[in-house]
Amino acid sequence: MSEIINTELAAKPLGAYPHARRVGNLLFLSGIGSRNAIDNSIPGLELDEAGNINKYDIEAECLQVFANVKAILEASGSSWNKIVDITVFLTNMKKDFPVYNKIYDEYFANVQACRTTVEVKSLPTPIAIELKVIATID
Asked: Does domain 2-136 correspond to CATH entry 3.30.1330.40?
């Protein structure tokens, strides 16, 4: 049994993929970024005329990506406490990891999901963080 899940409460996928897919009692979220569902903006991001990043706010992006993940989980019939595995992609590990890790600890202290955090050169839009999540559904 497989079910495709999309929600208007998280930013639209950038390609031909769903927000999530349920297989049995497992829920697999596609890579979820920090774009706002309402207007597709990236919180705290300032670009120059050429589209290069002048400034970004990793704290604001963390809060938005966590909100997007929560919205998708709930639309899928799951919840924050049912997350079992997270892969986190940061574009600047040295600069952003301390802030990200502090916020992560606040949100995930009671979840105790497995976690992998890696640095990547870039993501498809000028975001600084993306999450890949696996959760359960009862």
From this structure: yes
What φ, ψ does residue 128 adopt, rounded to 5°?
A: -105, -10
The residue ranges of every structural domain in the chain are: 2-136
DSSP string, the chain: -EEEE--TTSPPPSSS--SEEEETTEEEEPPEES--TTT---TT-EE-TTS-EEE--HHHHHHHHHHHHHHHHHHTT--GGGEEEEEEEES-HHHHHHHHHHHHHHHHTTT--EEEEEE-S--SSS-SEEEEEEEE--
Output the six-digit token pair for 135.
């959760």
Confidence of residue 123 (pLDDT cuts 50, 70, 90): very high
Per residue in 96-105, pLDDT (tens digit) is: 999 999 999 9
Residue reference for tokens 């600047």: 92
pTM over cut 0.85: yes
